[in-house]
C-alpha cells in the first residue's frame, strides 16, 4: 500500500490532470522520454496512457522515471504479486495504476460474486455501465421507472426485471453500488437510498461532492461499508467513446472508508473495468476542489468568458464576425491548444495577472460558498428550464452562430457533407 504521506500530500496532481479532459492525445512518447532506460519495457503495453504536462517533463531535462515496487495482495484465495509504478512528476513522486495491472480475466474473477448496481443513467452512468457490461461484469441499472433515462436505458439494451430495476431494487440487489446521480439528485434521494446500503456493501462515487460537502447534502455513508471513488477525467461520453476505440480515459482513484481491507483493490479494478487506461491516487476532498475549480476556470467558465470578451472587443472595433471568431476561438482550438497539449507552455511570457482570480475561486470552493450557490441552483425545481434558457442564449449569440459557419468551412467537415 502507498505511504500515508503520499496519500495525504498537499501537492496533489488533481490540478495537473484536471485540464487534460480529453486524455488520449497527451501521451509520453519514446522520443520525449528517450533517456528513460525502463521505458522500452513500458511501451510494450500499448494500453498504457500516462499523461503529464510535457513542459514539466522536458523543461530543464526533467524526465519522468518509472520505478517498480511490489504489493502482495491476497487475491483469489492466494497471494499475487502486482506491479505498482511510481512516477516522478516535476519532483513529486506519485503512484499510478495501469490497465495492464488488471487484465479482464483478473477483474472478472475478482468480481465474480458481485452485482454492480449503477444508479443513474446520465453521461457517466451510461458510459460506465455499458463499459462494465461489455467487460463481462454482472451489471444492473437502477432508475426511476418510465423516466427519460429509463427510456434511454431500454434503447441501450437493458431489460426490465433482468438488469434494469427501480433505484431501491437495484441498491438492494447490488453488492457494489455506483452512485452516479447528479449532485442535486444525490442529495434529494439519499434518505431513501441509505437504508439499502447494508453492512458489507461497497458505495462508489465518481465525484466526491456529496461526501465532502456532507453538511450541505446530508450524504454520510454508513460506517460498515467500503466507500470508494473512481473519477474519470472527462465526460461520460468520452469514457464510452475511448473504450470503444480501444483506448482509455485518465481517472483518479480514492478510498474514503476501507472496512473490508480490499477497498483499494475494488476501486482500481472497477476503474479499469469502466474504461480507465490508468489511474492516479487522490482523496475525495482533493478531487472535489480541483474539479470544481477546473470547471469554473480553464475548462469551461473562464474559457467562455475570455472568448466572449475578446470577440466583443473585436466586433466593437469594426472586425467582422468571421474574423473575430477566427482570431478568438478557431485559432485557439485548431492551432494553439493542440500545440500546448504537445509541447507545454514553457514559452509563455507573463500571464500571471490571472493568478489572484483563481486563488479567490479556490477559496470559494474550499469554504463552501461556491458549492452552496451551485447546489441551491441545481436543486431548483425550474433548474432544467433555466439552464435551457441560458444555453440557448449562448447558442444563439453571434459568436457561436458565426462559429457554426466557420467550422462548416473546415475541409474535413466539407468532405463529410
Structure, briefly:
This protein has helices at residues 4-7, 14-18, 39-42, 54-58, 104-110, 123-134, 148-155, 167-173, 183-193, 209-212, 214-217, 236-244, 263-273, 284-296, 301-316, 321-343, 355-366, 369-378, 383-396, 398-408, 411-416, and strands at 67-75, 78-89, 92-98, 116-119, 139-142, 164-165, 176-179, 202-205, 226-232, 249-257, 276-281. The protein is built from 21 helices and eleven strands. The relative contact order is 0.11.
Jot down its keywords.
417 residues, alpha/beta, Rossmann fold, 11-stranded mixed sheet, 16% strand
Write up what this structure looks like:
This protein is α/β, with parallel strands linked by helices and 417 residues long. It has three domains: 4-101, no CATH class; 107-256, NAD(P)-binding Rossmann-like Domain (Rossmann fold, 3-Layer(aba) Sandwich); 294-416, no CATH class. The chain contains 21 helices and eleven strands. The chain has helices spanning 4-7, 14-18, 39-42, 54-58, 104-110, 123-134, 148-155, 167-173, 183-193, 209-212, 214-217, 236-244, 263-273, 284-296, 301-316, 321-343, 355-366, 369-378, 383-396, 398-408, 411-416, and strands at 67-75, 78-89, 92-98, 116-119, 139-142, 164-165, 176-179, 202-205, 226-232, 249-257, 276-281. It has an eleven-stranded mixed sheet with strand order 1-2-3-11-10-9-8-7-4-5-6, sandwiched between helices. Helix 6 (123-134) runs parallel beside helix 12 (236-244), helix 14 (284-296) crosses helix 17 and helix 15 runs antiparallel to helix 16 (321-343). The radius of gyration is 22 Å and the shape is globular. The protein starts with a helix and ends with a helix.
